[in-house]
Design brief:
Layout (H helix, E strand, L loop, with lengths): L4 E3 L4 H9 L6 H14 L4 E3 L9 H14 L9 H21 L5 H5 L13 H12 L3 H9 L15 H7 L4 H8 L6 H5 L5 H10 L7
Parallel strand pairs: 1-2
The structure holds zinc ion.
The site of zinc ion (ZN) has 6 residues, from loops.
């Protein structure tokens, strides 16, 4: 007999929680772990995955027991971590539906779906650049307003400069766009909405000589 017991839980959540760390931190899992260890008199308990609804006797019995518990009037305390996740999901959904109405907001076209905007691995300067590119407001494209000067133009195309124009439109950057992003035909939200693109975007504006003017 091996010195461990293998348990096949009928809820995938249990297995995924156990797989995240050697020691479960979820209060209900901690209770389950202690209960199992006491009941089985084993310290080494391993978990395995089994297919659901495959008419495996033990799994069917566990399903029946779980269903009978859902009708119970007994109230169980809900761990704060579960409540927190639930509130976060609800807030995100309310925030998103509010944001869906803000179609006049410049940032909306860049970022229709709310998500973390700043690349987590970036330094402070890169975060500033990334945020300004999202907002479409940079020193290069907007400082003329402060100084009462004429707006800047692309010297080759003679077209007014904007973040969108620099990143997506100017045909003289097509070769570089293709080399870095593997495409020349994209919209600004597809580049800036994905923070994994940030290093390529920084490289792009660096090669174009704009990085110190953002
Ligand atoms: Zn141009």
């Amino acid at each position: 007999m091996p010195p461990w017991k293998v348990i096949y839980p009928n809820v995938d959540f249990t297995l995924s929680c156990y797989s995240k760390a050697c020691t479960p931190s979820h209060p209900i899992l901690v209770d389950i772990t202690y209960a199992l260890a006491n009941h089985l008199k084993k310290k080494d308990i391993r978990f395995g995955w089994i297919p659901g609804h495959a008419r495996i006797t033990g799994n069917e019995l566990a399903d029946t027991a779980a269903r009978s518990a859902t009708g119970s009037s007994e109230r169980f305390p809900i761990p704060h971590s579960d409540l927190k996740a639930c509130f976060r999901q609800k807030l995100q959904s309310v925030w998103q539906s509010n944001w869906d109405q803000q179609t006049e907001n410049k940032l909306h076209s860049v970022m229709p779906v709310l998500a973390p905007t700043v690349p987590s691995s970036s330094n402070r300067r890169e975060q500033v650049i990334w945020t300004r590119l999202h907002l479409g407001h940079t020193r290069l494209t907007h400082s003329h307003l402060l100084f009462g000067e004429p707006p800047p133009y692309c010297e080759i195309c003679n077209v007014s400069l904007s973040v969108k124009y620099i990143l997506c439109v100017c045909p003289h950057s097509n070769h570089l766009r293709h080399r870095l992003f593997n495409s020349v035909d994209f919209i600004i939200s597809s580049i800036l909405n994905n923070s994994t693109n940030s290093s390529l975007v920084f490289k792009f504006i660096n090669i174009k000589g704009f990085i110190h003017h953002i």
